[in-house]
From TrEMBL:
Protein name (record): Diacylglycerol O-acyltransferase
Gene Ontology biological-process annotations: biological process involved in interaction with host; glycerol metabolic process; response to hypoxia; response to nitric oxide; triglyceride biosynthetic process
Similarity comment: family membership: Belongs to the long-chain O-acyltransferase family.
InterPro entries attached to this UniProt entry: Acyl_transf_WS/DGAT, O-acyltransferase_WSD1-like, O-acyltransferase_WSD1_C, O-acyltransferase_WSD1_N
Record key words, sorted: Acyltransferase, Glycerol metabolism, Lipid biosynthesis, Lipid metabolism, Transferase
A Pfam family matched in the record: WS_DGAT_C
Stretches assigned to the O-acyltransferase WSD1 C-terminal domain: 302-447
Taxonomic lineage: Bacteria, Bacillati, Actinomycetota, Actinomycetes, Kitasatosporales
Record bears the keyword Lipid biosynthesis: yes
Amino acid sequence: MTAKSPDLLAPLDLAFWNIETAEHPMHLGALGVFEADAPGAAQHAAELLAARAPAVPGLRMRIAGVLVPVGGAARVPVADFDPLYHVRITEPVTDFHAAAGALMERPLDRRRPPWEAHVLPAADGRSFAVLFKFHHALADGLRALTLAAAVLDPVDLPAARTPEPAPRRGLRLPFPGLRDITLGDLDPRRYPGHVRAVAGATTQAVSIGASVARATWGVRTSPALSAEPTGTRRTAGVVLDLDDVHRIRKTVGGTVNDVLIAVVAGAVRRWLDDRGDGSEGVEPRALIPVSRRRPRTAHPQGNRLSGYLVRLPVAERDPLERLRAVRLAMDRHKDRGPHRGAGAVALLADHVPPLGHRLGGALVGRNARLLFDLMVTSVPLPSLGLTLGGCPLTAVFPLAPLAQGQSLAVALSTYRGQVHFGLVADAEAVPDLETLARATRDELTELLAVCTP
């Protein structure tokens, strides 16, 4: 009987695993707030999470090194999986975000499946929160959502597409877009197609590299957006009315995402001016991740990401002009697609052998600030109501990983008529994160006022 092949980490997953340091944890998270229906609701929720976790295969996987390929790693099941190590309940708290920030500081145990779920009872007993943490090598935002949803109460979701069958065994080439080559494929009459594919991959790499170089020219950023990593974390949340966002979109045009990115640009402007750093001439580069997953794929594995690199028009005084600038930039990126431009630098991971990721991970991690100044990412959520132990989920704040050398990351999700912003910052570099949260709300209010007089 043939042994099952290991679930090897994709190049981008391996990169995330290798760039982590003690001062630079590479995990993402989500803070979900639930309405409590009884005094013991938080304890019951923790018991349910622990009871359901063993039945979710993805939660039983740890990451271990492999002999072949050299420098590679794989997801392997844990025989002695203990859900009580991963699911924990805290003492009652008065501020969910303050507690979440302290918990986000702690690196995940790399010897175990790299995830945790912390249940936070509210001091008043009316609600509780659950902070999910996943290492980026185990899950990107969409995969993390799938794993978290698997331990919430069952819901009726649309049927997912049956996964594609595993490819035939053969010679694996380290280039994206190439399938495995079997002996039957080595017919010289067919070989030129593979040569063209290799050439195309090389051309793509050169094009992305040139775009990265161009993206560093004439950069006007702010020192407030960069910081030496301290390992400390602070989080904050902002809730906006999705109907307000739609009113702006219908008046000015563009997409909901365009409006929200413009809100981020205006909020950063207000925040910089408020703290005395000034916004004059500032155009920070925002990395906007783009998923390359096929729609309705069952059990998505690993990171399938590209991105757009957008200069935020922070220096622009007029909120409508900021929105127009964002729209133009996003339209240009969409016309080119997620496989081109400086934001597609994640695709270059596919061109690097595993040993290269192992040896160069720390170097790449330290230089993220040379490519972009902050991340602004959107995490999709189902529109239907989610519950845990019958307690409804009332708010969910996605928490993006903070790139090494950067002080701020922004993630957002829409859920049941609201937009939830999750702000993550280095706690020492950004002690005034609540100021940015207020600026986000104020920016939407002003934009709504000028769009709907």
